[in-house]
Structure formats: C-alpha cells, structure tokens
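Run log, item B.
One chain of 249 residues. Sequence copied directly from the ordering sheet:
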Amino acid sequence: MGKHGFGVDIGGTGIKGAPVDLRKGKLSDDRFRVPTPQPATPDAVAAVVREVLDHFEWQGEFGCTFPAVVQHGMVRTAANVDQSWIGTDADKLLASATGRQPLVVNDADAAGVAEVRFGAAKDQDGVVLVSTLGTGIGSALLLDGQLVPNTELGHVELDGHDAESRASESARERENLSWADWAARLTRYYQHLENLFWPDLIVVGGGVSKNADQWLHLVETRTELVPATLLNNAGIVGAAVLAAERHQH
C-alpha cells in the first residue's frame, strides 16, 4: 500500500474529501467541502465528487463513502439521498464521471475501518462493533480487523420500533430528551446488540461522540463502550484505506 490515498465522504448536506496519509490515518491536507446538490441525484453528486478530486489534482484510485447499503458497488438503499440512487452502479458512475478508479462503500463501514485501524479500536482483536449516532444509526461490524459489510443494525426492531427512530441523535433532539433519558434508550439498544453479537468492544461515533462525557457513562452494557476518536474524518480515512487495499490485490 502506498503512503497516500484519497477519501471522499458523501453526506446529506455536504460532500467533502482530502488526501490521506495511509500510515498515520490522518488527513494530509485540509478537507475541501462542497454542499450536497439538491436534489442529490446520481449525476449531480458525481459531478461534485469530480470537483473535489480536481481541487486536489488527485489522479489515483479513491475511496468514497455513501449513506446507503452498497453491495459490490451497487447502491441498494437510499436513506438520506435521492431515491434515484437505488439500483445505481455507483462504482461505474463515479469511474465514468471522474476518470479515476473509485471504491464506493457504506459510510458507517468506512468509519468503522478507520476506528479499528487508527482509532478507538486499534489493536483490538475479536469482534468490534462501531456504531454511529446521527440522523439515523449506522453500524460497522469487524472481526479481527476485517469488515463484515452492510450491517444495518440501526434498523433492528426494538420494542416494536425501528431502533434508530427511538435511539438516534435526531430522536434525542426531536423529542427533547435529557441525556439520562436518551442514555436509557441507548442502554436498551446496545444490550440488545450485545445479546446478538457478543462484541469485545463497542465504539460509539457520530457528532454526538464529541459530548461523550455527558452521556456515555450513563449507558449500561457489559461490553466496554468507548467514544470514537477520528470523529468527522473517519469516513474519509476509512474509504481511502479500503480503496488503497483493494487496489493492492
């Protein structure tokens, strides 16, 4: 694997990217961000991805996160982007729009890989569950550092509800929950996942992990629960790593 890679993070509000130092797991330049086009159709988003790559004059392969299930480059769901993405071959679309070789992956999966390689779960063997709390709940499941892609654990049913509709950061804001009330819901959620997967470590990411000291200690689990450390850069770093590794093979 070379020393530098490139990652792009496609989100509901912004598309950002940067070159990545693959040995340190850090950005090697400031992120460049462009607002996500509205509507966020495949062609409109692809044009912005090209703009981000051109900004850095990056010519090599690149990794790209996407807020959906991505199976072998094919987008299967569309939670926070335009419905026209469903059934789109994102790898093919971005290759043709940018003239470079992409690897498109689920956004939580990319963040999970970054946390296991360089962040809160570095050197952790066994089963690691990385959970991102935001508009919804993203998840990444890794075994001995290897990703099991597209686990949609935000959508497990909990007490008759889709878990993310009750326990996501947006649910906390929408219902104006206190940290303690929200932590009680997270306790219920993470205990449920513990009983399904028996992880060795749970890493909690998403913007709210910046305030982990307000609520993380209130969540009761038998598994060690730690805040993510790469925060907003995790998707970019993880996507760059996965793209560089695939290019190696």
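Observations after the first pass:
- The mean pLDDT is 95.
- The longest helix spans residues 179-197.
Flagged for discussion on Thursday.
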